[in-house]
């Protein structure tokens, strides 16, 4: 008796569930892309790139020096003395460690600064998002990286970016 009642309730719930989902407004939103794609976000990102350009150039020149020394070692290695070879190999190892450290440091700096940009623009983003939620009566917002597939018509990232641009004018 109890099993039949439970089965009937389960069947009723399953039949009602699609109608509940059909009424929900579900959208997809990439907050970082919306914020960084806004006019103000692009300006701040360009400033960041300009600030980090000197470090990038220095890292690039270090990598070129590393490649030049490596090429010299390959080319002249057979005629070099053992002590010169060891010295060149040690220098290459040291340069490689320095380059890797520099790359990691630069990458972390860029990520930290990008996070600062996102946080500084978060209040405007949140206001725009709250307005859209109210106007469009959105029930659920999903991030694209949490989905296997979503139709592009459900993605409101571009709308949020446009509203951010309107708000900053």
Name the beta content range: under 5%
CATH superfamily assignment?
Skp domain
The radius of gyration is 28 Å
The profile of the biggest β sheet is: 2 strands, parallel
Mean pLDDT: 87
What's the helical proportion of residues? over 70%
CATH topology descriptor: Protein Binding, DinI Protein, Chain A
Going by helix content, strand content and strand pairing, the class is mainly alpha
- Basic shape: elongated
- N-to-C span: 67 Å
CATH structural class: Alpha Beta
Which strand order spans the largest sheet, edge to edge or round the barrel? 1-2
The count of strands amounts to 2
How many separate helices?
A: 5
User: Which architecture name does CATH use?
Assistant: 2-Layer Sandwich
Low-confidence stretches: none
Domain count, please report it.
1
How would you spell out the order of helices and strands? Answer: HEHHHEH
Features:
169 residues, 4% strand, Protein Binding, DinI Protein, Chain A, 2 strands, mainly alpha, 5 helices, elongated, two-stranded parallel ribbon
Task: Explain the layout of strands and helices.
Blueprint lengths: L1 H22 L2 E3 L2 H6 L2 H38 L5 H55 L3 E3 L14 H12 L1
Give a quick precis of the structure:
It is built from 5 helices and 2 strands; from the N terminus they run αβαααβα. The protein has helices at 2-23, 31-36, 39-76, 82-136, 157-168, and strands spanning 26-28, 140-142.
What would you say this structure looks like, in words?
The structure is a single chain. The protein has a two-stranded parallel ribbon. It has five helices and two strands, in the order αβαααβα. The model has no long low-confidence stretch (mean pLDDT 87). The protein is 79% helix and 4% strand. The protein has a single domain, classed as Skp domain (Protein Binding, DinI Protein, Chain A). The protein is mostly helical. It starts with a helix and ends with a helix.
């Amino acid at each position: 008796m109890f099993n039949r009642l439970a089965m009937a309730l389960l069947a009723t719930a399953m039949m009602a569930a699609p109608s509940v989902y059909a009424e929900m407004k579900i959208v997809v939103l990439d907050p970082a892309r919306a914020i960084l794609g806004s006019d103000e976000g692009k300006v701040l990102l360009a400033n960041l790139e300009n600030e980090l350009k000197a470090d990038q150039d220095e890292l690039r020149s270090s990598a070129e020096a590393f490649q030049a020394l490596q090429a010299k070692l390959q080319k002249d290695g057979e005629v070099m003395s053992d002590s010169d070879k060891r010295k060149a190999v040690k220098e290459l190892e040291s340069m490689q460690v320095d380059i890797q450290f520099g790359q990691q440091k630069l990458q972390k700096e860029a990520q930290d600064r990008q996070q600062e940009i996102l946080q500084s623009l978060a209040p405007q983003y949140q206001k725009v998002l709250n307005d859209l939620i109210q106007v469009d009566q959105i029930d659920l917002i999903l991030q694209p990286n949490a989905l296997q597939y979503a139709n592009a018509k459900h993605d409101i990232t571009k709308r949020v970016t446009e509203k951010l641009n309107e708000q900053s004018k």
